Recover the amino acids of this structure.
């Protein structure tokens, strides 16, 4: 055989080897066994999934005094409190159009939603969380989710979210269990995602999927802040001041001394929904890195604000405890009560759908100040 032909064969054989054992796969494998503190992006279905070593249960949590006396879900919390990184199952790396383009998003709706809440997501997509241009600025939507159950049931729900993602492109999902005491984790994971993918979004609405949020009013309010384009502090909603941990064991918000010893909470906004600037979101994320996770997510946001020397500001338009309807003779679903608010807590999907349409009814006539009683 001629020399050039041999060379050709050797080069071909090398090419085949690289094809069979891709370099990046070999290095990922080494990575997984090596430096645990490094994150390594891996391509998967056109999106990037950050892989971290699985977070280990902290066995010494069991030696905290009185550990065996606290309920199971709180023991669970204590065992996994230090875990802050979980693999992403659904990502939206291009949601904000890149770091610089993210400045074009005026209001990013970040809605906590568990996988089972399909109907709530569907109705929000058609109503207050619709992606749209309002008053010349963009409103965008993201649901944030974990996983539920295990085995077949977990797979089934993950598949549901995957199908929704294909149609709507509006879900971030991480592989952690979506429980009440993991909501803070969900928040922190979102903020980390935001810093990476959407750092210049002007304002964020952060809230639950069972509220009625008047997002048009939110945009109007935010546009009226003449000296803040999202680059200054803003954190507003229904402010709780001078509250303390619930020490009553039957409450779902029960926080024993094993979780928090101190008997007071900083001021915070009710987690049903609040507004914040992009600037404040990044400050909170920054502070969160050195604050131990607290299971109540809205309290934790307050802790981060306090550490940054910032406070939440009350806004009368947020009714996270529901509306006070003055008289039994008044229809509690009278749209005039809802037209002027920014948020009212606890709405069923059909009621959200109805209310969204009622407040835009051109024939709607509301008496002067009828909503302010
Ligand atoms: C594990 O729990 C113990 C007891 O609460 C705590 O002192 C320690 O810092 C925890 N370790 C980690 C890695 O969080
Ligand atoms: C939070 O999620 C992790 C990962 O799924 C889980 O191990 C832990 O038990 C969860 N914590 C709570 C309080 O549910
Ligand atoms: C984050 O915090 C560190 C100090 O902990 C500070 O040096 C840095 O400027 C902060 N960055 C932002 C964006 O707030």
């Amino acid at each position: 055989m001629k020399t050039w032909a041999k060379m050709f064969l050797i080069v071909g054989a090398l090419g085949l080897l690289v094809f069979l054992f891709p370099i990046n796969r070999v290095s990922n494998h080494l990575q997984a066994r090596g430096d645990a503190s490094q994150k390594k992006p891996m391509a998967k279905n056109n999106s990037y999934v950050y892989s971290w070593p699985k977070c280990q249960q902290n066995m010494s949590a069991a030696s905290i005094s009185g550990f065996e006396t606290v309920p199971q879900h709180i023991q669970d919390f204590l065992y996994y409190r230090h875990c802050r990184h979980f693999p992403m199952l659904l990502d939206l790396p291009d949601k904000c159009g890149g770091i610089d383009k993210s400045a074009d998003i005026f209001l990013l709706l970040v809605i906590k939603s568990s996988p089972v809440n399909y109907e709530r997501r569907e109705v929000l997509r058609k109503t207050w969380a619709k992606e749209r241009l309002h008053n010349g600025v963009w409103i965008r939507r993201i649901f944030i989710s974990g996983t539920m159950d295990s085995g077949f049931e977990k797979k089934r729900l993950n598949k549901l979210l995957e199908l929704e993602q294909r149609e709507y492109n509006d879900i971030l999902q991480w592989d952690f269990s979506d429980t009440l005491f993991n909501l803070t984790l969900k928040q922190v994971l979102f903020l980390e995602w935001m810093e990476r993918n959407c750092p210049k979004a002007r304002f964020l609405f952060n809230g639950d999927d069972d509220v009625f949020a008047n997002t048009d009013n939110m945009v109007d309010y935010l546009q009226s802040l003449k000296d803040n384009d999202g680059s200054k502090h803003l954190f507003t909603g229904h402010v709780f001041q001078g509250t303390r941990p619930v020490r009553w064991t039957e409450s779902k918000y029960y926080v024993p001394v094993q979780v928090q010893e101190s008997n007071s909470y900083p001021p915070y906004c009710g987690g049903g929904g609040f507004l914040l600037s992009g600037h404040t979101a990044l400050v909170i994320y920054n502070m969160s890195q050195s604050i131990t996770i607290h299971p109540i997510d809205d309290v934790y946001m307050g802790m981060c604000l306090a550490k940054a020397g910032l406070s939440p500001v009350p806004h009368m338009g947020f009714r996270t405890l529901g509306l006070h309807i003055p008289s039994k003779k008044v229809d509690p679903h009278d749209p005039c009560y809802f037209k002027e608010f920014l948020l009212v807590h606890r709405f069923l999907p059909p009621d959200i759908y109805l209310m969204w349409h009622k407040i835009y009814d051109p024939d709607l006539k509301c008496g002067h100040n009828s909503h302010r009683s």
